[in-house]
Amino acid sequence: MNTIKYTLSEDHLPKTWYNIQADLPTPLPPVLHPQTHQPITPADLEPLFPQALIEQEVSQQRYIDIPSPVYDIYRQWRPTPLYRARRLEKALDTPAKIYYKYEGVSPTGSHKPNTAIPQAYYNKIEGVKRLTTETGAGQWGCSLALAGMFFDLDVEVYMVKVSYHQKPYRRAMMESYGAKVIASPSETTAAGREILAQYPDSTGSLGIAIGEAIEIAAQDSKTKYALGSVLNHVLLHQTVIGLEAIEQLKMAEDEPDIIIGCTGGGSNFAGLVFPFLGASLRGESQKPIKFMAVEPAACPTLTRGKYAYDFGDTAHLTPLVKMHTLGNSFVPEGFHAGGLRYHGMAPLISHLVQLGLIECSAYPQLSCFAAGLTFASSEGILPAPEANHAVRKAIDEALLCKEEGISRTILFNLCGHGHFDMQAYIDYQAGKLQDSEYNPQEIAMALAGLPSFE
What we know:
Blueprint: E1 5-6, E2 16-18, H1 42-45, H2 51-58, E3 63-65, H3 68-74, E4 82-84, H4 86-92, E5 97-102, H5 113-125, E6 130-135, H6 139-150, E7 154-160, H7 161-166, H8 168-176, E8 180-184, H9 190-198, H10 206-218, E9 223-225, H11 232-238, H12 240-251, E10 258-262, H13 267-281, E11 290-296, H14 301-304, E12 306-311, E13 320-325, H15 347-354, E14 359-363, H16 365-379, H17 387-404, E15 409-414, H18 422-429, H19 440-448
Parallel strand pairs: 5-15, 6-7, 6-9, 7-8, 10-11, 10-15, 11-14
Antiparallel strand pairs: 1-4, 2-3, 4-5, 12-13
Organism: Gloeothece verrucosa (strain PCC 7822)
Keywords: Amino-acid biosynthesis, Aromatic amino acid biosynthesis, Lyase, Pyridoxal phosphate, Tryptophan biosynthesis
Pfam families: PALP
């Protein structure tokens, strides 16, 4: 049978998340206190996160149970489908077999609710009344707003200013779910006011928005901060993607040679890759798999960043984590893949790159939009600008198979649809978009400001 869609019933929805920390060949470098440079304690994180998430952040347990209230909400859209991209294969005339895991079927159109729902749940049971957060392209802000609505929590979102204006429909969705949305940098925080005093026309960055959200959370015992990527517990929650994909590929009687995901902070990439990579680390895979992370050339954290301790925000309110970073003061150009405009990369992914287990590449936005339209013309789904980076890489790997006359199985994560990004596609097809380039001097200056350990 030429099966196109592989679906799992609700009773095959994973009942646990997978924690790759249990299988790391060498442990993750510790998170450090910004003043003492000593490993942080759980008490240091309590002003920001509920106890359950702090425990997940440091846990070495391989599998962590999904709470029943979270599981019941997941069932609204999970398990998500795995597709065989037969039309795309034909259009490319490639011997490769291409599969994609489609996370755009969630209520907000992306993978982000996979962690927004449990984060809201754990905060709710601890008596929290309000959550603050940042968002770039808006997928995360929409997802936390949705989760706040489900669990009766107030949600305040600091949205990177360039995306606030580029993506009004994402902002409208957040507000429809009851969230308050503020363009960052803003006048509502000391961190925002300081940036605006120096750079009145600042378009913002995720690092700035994180600092504003953390500042608000730290001032109120009934308010906590929620992050949509980067941290260990966030990547943990996303592993339902890969756990489902393993079972779906068994249905297809296939195994991947290559697994691809776009990377900004790292959550969708980790969600698909970590369960497969964990099996490889445990010696359970039947064949070697290449794991490929794809990032925007205008914010090349993995391919041009330094592996060093840095702050997660521009205001220096976070602990220090060891990660690939362009420097916390780096502000990327306002290209349309707003979810990938972060100066750092998840410590877990950065660590695995250092161990040589993940390959990295970077693409300019015009090439990625072209790939998105190629994909849409064959598969009928218009990807989010972020997901286009994974599409681009998957197409290139499939064309390489054609050139070499070799059939490989390629799996990638289509982490969201582009239905709120139509202006970007309009601008692309009108020839108004350009390939944004990072300024090497700006990165050099930002890296020169990394924390000193002397």
